[in-house]
Amino acid sequence: MRCLYVVTHPEATHHVERVVGGWHDSELTPAGARAAESIADALRERIPDGAEVELYTSDLKRTHQTAVVVGERLGVEPILDHRLREKSYGEAEGRPQEWLDDRFVPPPAVGERLDHDEGVPGAETKGSCARRVYSAMEEILASDCAHQIVVTHGLAMSFVITSWIAMPLESLAYVSFRAPAGSITELREDDYFHNRQVVRLGDTGHLVT
Hints:
Number of strands: 6
Shape: globular
Number of domains: 1
Strand content: 15-25%
CATH architecture: 3-Layer(aba) Sandwich
CATH topology: Rossmann fold
Distance between the termini: 32 Å
């Protein structure tokens, strides 16, 4: 059985400051750091002792900090990959969320959605974000390691999942998997049919309330 665990980083400073994340390099809050410990504990329980583990992470501080805690618990060094970053919001990053809300142009219900211009200079489209995450996942999934962990962000997580189930890029226009900060999504591939499953989506049962 092959398992891929997708972690969304826990609470970061941009959450509590109510500023736009994206590539804004925010850090974990004290609550986020505690949640990272809980994530590491949960993964330690799910992955057998002595099993080979690969750990990949976005290179932004909040994800890297999370991955370091996980890696220390599992005895593995995180591999940083900028392609696992959140979607860039260009000039909006680090600004108050209201600044983005006032300028954001939502995609149409029908028509061009993947490469829709959201009205913010320098921002990535959904399609450009998806393409770089797919590029990273192509390399990650080429490995035969039975236990892999990817630490990423809320929107980017959707594309990690769709790459896992081999959804074509051109089919992503309406895709959105939602998961809370600090969640673990568990993906499995069986050894016989090689079918890929989404076993748990956005699980937060490990977080202390």
